[in-house]
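Q&A log
Question type: sequence-to-structure
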Amino acid sequence: MSAGPARILTILLLWLVGLGAAAQFAKIAVPFATVRAFYPDAGDAVGWLLSIVSLSGAILGIVFGNLVARAGEKRIIIAGLILGALMSLWQASIPSFGWMLFSRFLEGLSHLTIVVAAPTLITQLAGDRLRPFALSFWSTFFGVAFAIFAWIVIPLFPSDDLGGLLSAHGIYMAIAAGLLLFILPKDEPKEVQATNVIASHLRAYSTPIIAAPAVGWLFYTLTFVSLIALIPESLPVGEAAWASGLMPLMSIATSLFLVPLIATRYSSLHAIYAGFAIGAVLILFAINIDLRAIVAVIFFGVIGLVQGGSFASVPELNKTAEDQALAYGFMAQMGNVGNLLGTPILLWVISLGGDSAKYGAITLLYIMAIAANMALARARKA
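Response status: OK
Response body:
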């Protein structure tokens, strides 16, 4: 096999690993009613089984970016897959709520190693011409995993067989670890200066080329997951069902096909600007009309520009593997912060002013995202 096809197959395998990482959320979120039934005494605290995975990333994203840069991508991603496999197989025994919650925190560490190391590896494996498409392709892993889980995986198991579902995920992660062990090239020795946790955070926050992708990603994640959940409530019943499935797919399509096309002639940062600007206009338009499904679907297609452009901007701005790993770690941290805070913030806004306030808040967030990226662009020039 020539080097080109071998690299493409390795990138595809890393994307499949990404599906396993996204399934760490989907395996609890999609069958959530079943999960709740297994822990009836937990009450509303059962929601922590989903959100605590994001908590790990919100706290430790930059730490793991620095760890990947120092220890090597192959070593870290395989360790993360093994940890994820062990956690899923343990969870399949349906332990007590406290132990299940602890296992989900550890699983958050597994998730973090994958979402930091995998795009760093893809950046290194893909050549200059393939890189924009490869990273846009990587950015689709979360939405695709949820769709596969909802439409294909869940129907394969009886509704009360949560243990079988979790076992299957553990086996998937273990197989992925074995494949990567033999397929990935050996980690190359790196001249990376050891830095402590505080220094890593200060460097990420203060370096415009490292911070830029993460800042845009924060504003994107503040709205993406929350709007997938909240927009269908604003749609007519006949439209909500098909729109809720089509919205994330539209975002994936834009990220996968339009962003690489933009990147061939312009900076991927232009895709981010365009996504936020057009998205803000569409949301302003939605304030003045009864939101229709077609507007919602187009909106998600537009913000797909931010999804693909954010990942593609990391290697465009950061030229060393060390900086790329730190940038992806910062993105993971900000993405988890956005996932944690987005839905509570929008629900609070809705309680104050209804849907009009919700759309106004999103417009404001997107304007802030553009302003923050423009400020970072000026800092890079300086």
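Response note: Residues 36 and 46 are 6 Å apart (CA to CA).
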